[in-house]
């Protein structure tokens, strides 16, 4: 889904997935996506205007949801799964640091 209000786009995307469309994605605000490539080959272009911190966190949440869906369906090699697990742990530590910083404000 590439146009319209986010809430509506997310609802429509969910409805399409329920109807059997498995490759439905909702880009984050101001993300540019090359629709001429299959979704696995697409690379999102960062928006040219800076996002606020809440917008960035929202975009990260959406990316995490998409990644979680892809990983849950994929058969990963032990090496890839191990590498992804290490990166997930690093991300968890970064999120803990951000939470601590927000609590200090």
Summarize the structure in words.
- The chain has 105 residues and is mostly helical.
- The longest helix is centred in the C-terminal third of the chain and has 27 residues.
- The termini are far apart.
- 58% of the residues lie in helices and 0% in strands.
- The protein is built from 3 helices and no strands.
**Morphology:** globular
N→C terminal distance: 36 Å
Structural class: mainly alpha
Tell me roughly what share of residues is in helical segments: 55-70%
Query: What portion of residues belong to β-strands?
Result: under 5%
Count every helix, treating DSSP H or I runs of 4 or more residues as helices: 3
Q: Give, in order, the helices and strands.
A: HHH
How much is the average pLDDT?
78
Radius of gyration: 16 Å
Q: Got a strand count? A: 0
Low-confidence stretches: 44-48
How would a textbook summarize the main sheet? none
Summarize, please:
It is built from 3 helices and no strands. It is an all-alpha fold and 105 residues long. The N and C termini lie far apart (36 Å).
Main features:
single chain, 105 residues, mainly alpha, 3 helices, 58% helix, 0% strand, globular
Spell out the blueprint of helices and strands.
Layout: H1 6-18, H2 53-73, H3 78-104
